[in-house]
Amino acid sequence: MSISLEREKHQNQLSQERLIPGQVLILLAGRFQGKRVVFLKQLKSGLLLVTGPFKINGVPLKRVNSAYVIPTSTKVDVNGVNAGQVDDLYFKRTQAQRRKNEQGFWAKRGELTAEQQTAEKTRLEGKRKTQKSIDDALIAAVKKTPLLKQYLGARFSIGKTTRPHDLVF
Amino acid sequence: MKSEQQQKGVTKTVKKVKVNKKAPVRLWVKAVFTGFRRSKVQQNEKQALLKIQHVDDVSSSRFYWGKRVAYIYKAHSLKNNTKFRTIWGRVSRSHGSNGIVIARFNRNLPPRAIGSTLRVFLYPNRA
């Protein structure tokens, strides 16, 4: 088996054993490190699909590697949430995106044509819609539990006396 | 666009962007680089001994196996838009019975790092 297939299989095994849709995860790295997010589902690539929800902590629909996440025992009810239309293709970079930062010799190629610009606009509008539809259902469920909104809005941090090896998440 | 300019190891933008004024979060554990694995007269620079804060026995140190470690230092010249540089490594095994841990780095740590604080991150999470 190729290395990437083995890694996928390993990630699948991990998620199936321990992660339940609606579980709150703590992101360990990246721009949103320390943020508590809601796990929606596992994508075909093995990555986990999570969302802030965006209105609560600024984390959008995002793919995350399960090794860069700590699962907590807190769960949100995701029965009303439909994340079916989001898959790995949703996150694929478009040509226009890849070319936006072209410099120097290739700068001309980076300039978006009129039709590329409108295509970008429509694509972003679609993304905002998907984000909103998923988050609205989630936020309704979050509001039912007291303090869950504040919990999701707060960031995890290691303090002076925190012992991560002793913590029960 | 928000940007946390306080964080080390992250590419600092040269342009002025909206700075995140909230308190920074720490998602890494402090560890002191106590020296290289050695006998009295010989040392192995490939293996760095790390004393992770609040880790006092072998069973606690097991949590940190495989976790990534970074040695962050400052240099004079700008590289990747920042004066901070890192040497990355991983915790590979425990050492002794008091929670000391051996880490191996992509490039060996410089001896001037002895006594300095390294960052042991919580990823990859094996849970």
Overview of the structural elements:
With 169 residues, chain A is an alpha+beta fold. Chain A starts with a helix and ends in a 16-residue tail after the last helix. In chain A, a hairpin with an 8-residue loop joins β1 (23-27) and β2 (36-42). Chain A has a five-stranded antiparallel sheet with strand order 4-3-2-1-5. Chain A is built from six helices and five strands; from the N terminus they run αβββαββαααα. Chain B has one domain: Thrombin, subunit H (Beta Barrel). Chain B has a six-stranded antiparallel barrel with strand order 3-4-7-6-5-8. A two-stranded parallel ribbon of chain B has the order 1-2. Chain B has one helix at 58-61; strands at 2-3, 18-19, 28-38, 43-52, 68-79, 82-95, 100-105, 117-121. Mean pLDDT of chain B is 87; it is low at 1-7. The longest helix of chain B has 4 residues, at 58-61. The radius of gyration of chain B is 16 Å and the shape is globular. Classes of the chains: A alpha+beta (169), B mainly beta (127). Chain B: This is 60S ribosomal protein L35a. Chain B: Belongs to the eukaryotic ribosomal protein eL33 family. Chain B: InterPro entries: Ribosomal_eL33, Ribosomal_eL33_sf, Transl_B-barrel_sf. Chain B: It holds the Pfam family Ribosomal_L35Ae.
Strand content of chain B: over 45%
Largest interface, with Cβ-Cβ < 8 Å? A-B, 24 and 21 residues
Fraction of residues in H or I helices of chain A: 25-40%
Q: How would you spell out the order of helices and strands of chain B? A: EEEEHEEEE
The CATH architecture assignment of chain B turns out to be Beta Barrel
Mean model confidence by pLDDT of chain A: 86
How are the strands ordered across the major sheet of chain A? Answer: 4-3-2-1-5
- Going by helix content, strand content and strand pairing, the class of chain A is alpha+beta
Radius of gyration of chain B: 16 Å
Per DSSP, the total helix count of chain A is 6
Kindly summarize this structure in a few lines.
The complex is a heterodimer of chains A (169) and B (127). Chain A is built from six helices and five strands.
